[in-house]
Amino acid sequence: MPRLGLVDWRRSNDFAPLALVMSGEEKNRLVRSLGEVAKALVVAWPTDDGKEYIAAVKACLDAIRGEIPAKTARSALIRAAEEAGIPVLGAVH
Question: What is the chain's alpha carbon radius of gyration, rounded to the nearest angstrom?
């Protein structure tokens, strides 16, 4: 697969938003970009292990580097949320 090049990880144009229903201080987290995926995984995630969690972190980094599309990282985040028992809601943008 050809490298897409470093992307603007704050851009939300190519990222369908979703909401994570988190516990603790971060009750709900709207995720609209790769930067928000990274922040959710690193700052707000309830655990730092799990097969899908590690895959989501890697996918996020790969997407930021332009090696995979943002939608692939979004899918990985959804799988990690399922693994962690975090409900995911599609958000209208």
Answer: 12
